[in-house]
Specification:
This is Hemin uptake protein hemP. This protein is an alpha+beta fold. The protein is 32% helix and 22% strand. Strand 2 and strand 3 form a beta hairpin. The N terminus is likely disordered.
Length: 78
């Protein structure tokens, strides 16, 4: 898997004329999506909490509490 990822990366880096959305020859779009570099989604806690100090997250039918402490740390509890 690692070799395939490096090969795809090398192909993309050596062929700048290809549009970013194109899939290298011989690969399915699904494989190319999994081999693409990870791009994290960043959301600020203050945007989620809307000036509060906690939010509730529902994940797979369970509720979790994410709260901000006075020391600037986050605590996640079930």
């Amino acid at each position: 898997m690692r070799i395939a990822q490096l090969t795809i990366f090398e192909r993309l880096m050596t062929a700048p004329e290809q549009p970013a959305s194109s899939v290298p020859e011989g690969l399915t779009a699904d494989f190319a999506d999994r081999a693409a570099p990870f791009s994290p989604k960043i959301v600020h806690f203050t945007d989620l909490a809307r000036c509060g100090d906690e939010i509730w997250i529902e994940y797979e039918g369970k509720l979790y509490r994410l709260q901000s402490t006075r020391q600037g740390k986050l605590i996640l509890t079930k």
